[in-house]
Amino acid sequence: MLKSLVMKVPAALAAIAIVAIGKGVAAWIGAFAILCAGAGVLAWLVFDVNSSFWAKTRWRADGSPGTVALTFDDGPHPQYTPRVLEILEAKDVPATFFVIGENVRAHPDLLARIDEAGHLVGNHSDHHGWGFHFTPRAGLRRELVACNAAIANAIGKEPTLFRAPQGFKTPALGDALRDLGLLAIGWQVRGLDAMGRDSATIVERIASRVKAGGVVQMHDGAAQLALKSREATLDALPEVIDRIRAAGLEFVRLDALLGVPPYRK
Hints:
Radius of gyration: 20 Å
Order of helices and strands: HHEEHEHHEHEHEEHEHEH
Strand content: 5-15%
Largest sheet: 6 strands, parallel
Distance between the termini: 29 Å
Mean pLDDT: 87
Number of strands: 9
Number of helices: 10
Structural class: alpha/beta
């Protein structure tokens, strides 16, 4: 939160100074422009999913090894997650699932299946609501703790990795992540499959942009504003895997790619 104040206060003081020193409408326009510029910078730092300004964020591996990590958000989903798991098993691909706490409480057996298959589980908030981004530090702590508790109850492990809803990170979220010792995860490329109906577009978007050491984001569930069907994701996934391998890249779990501990000891 201190970083936010350090940025806001100078902008506000500069705007006040211009109004005090300047004259007429031009001074007010200048002050307004300074405030808008400051707000724009703050917004960019919130919406840049891979920025580490508010919280340390990993989205690719240092040194760019010939590997990538496949990740899924918004599950577990009783209809789509089992089918994703079937594809991953058939293709012998490890993955990471960033799950929503309320979904875990509704389907703990499905989370256990993810874990038993050797995949990694991460925290994706407890409710994934739009209000998440406007929640103060204490409320965000409760949200993250609740999701981790749901995961621990289902698989006996508490994650250290977190992906924010929509990837957005606010100053308050940065404080909460530091309080809890959680590492934020972004992505190098995503399929935009949460909103996509065309599997070929999803495949091309990922396969044409993925790079060695990158984190790939897809979805096995559906949250706010997303399409409720993941059929396009399921159709795209086998070809996404094949195209990435054809590019000479291999899949590893996220913790192996980044060299980080996935769960608390």
